[in-house]
Amino acid sequence: MAFASGFRRILSLASSTNSSSSSIRPCLLASTRLQSTLTSPKLFISGLSRTTNDEALNNAFLQFGKLVEAKVITDRATGRSKGFGFVTYETIEEAEKARQEMSGKFLDGWVIFVDPAKPREPRPPPPAQSQGQPSQPGYTVNRTIGWCG
After folding, report:
1. What is the three-state SS of the chain?
2. How confident is the prediction for the chain on average, in pLDDT?
3. Domain layout of the chain by residue ranges
4. pLDDT(144) > 80
5. The CATH number of the domain covering residues in 35-119
């Protein structure tokens, strides 16, 4: 929505000026393109190698400002990277600089992409099941192994 209003503003300025000031238009477009779209200093990093760890991610993004956290999301069973992670900076300006510089670059031999992190969506709680009642209507199965008589 903000992009559309900014675009309308540029078009209205460009159409209201005469033809001699047409050199202003590229400047207006460039300034709109470079405006930050980040609302928080947390970045989502995708395309990570399976061998990338927290330390490697931290070292790659440390040059753009003071890091609060650099976390590679790992599989619970294997402990390997799932291929994405999160980096959090102290300020939005540092995060924007890292986003512009690191998106499309190589890290551990893989091209990574840097995007703004979205807030986690709440999950509905799992349905509660009581101990004495079957989970589905119909026959119940006794799961006892061996003699129980």
Report:
1. CHHHHHHHHHHHHHHHCCHHHCCHHHHHHHHHHCCCCCCCCEEEEECCCCCCCHHHHHHHHHHHCCEEEEEEEECCCCCCEEEEEEEEECCHHHHHHHHHHHCCCEECCEECEEEECCCCCCCCCCCCCCCCCCCCCCCCCCCCCCCCC
2. 78
3. 35-119
4. no
5. 3.30.70.330
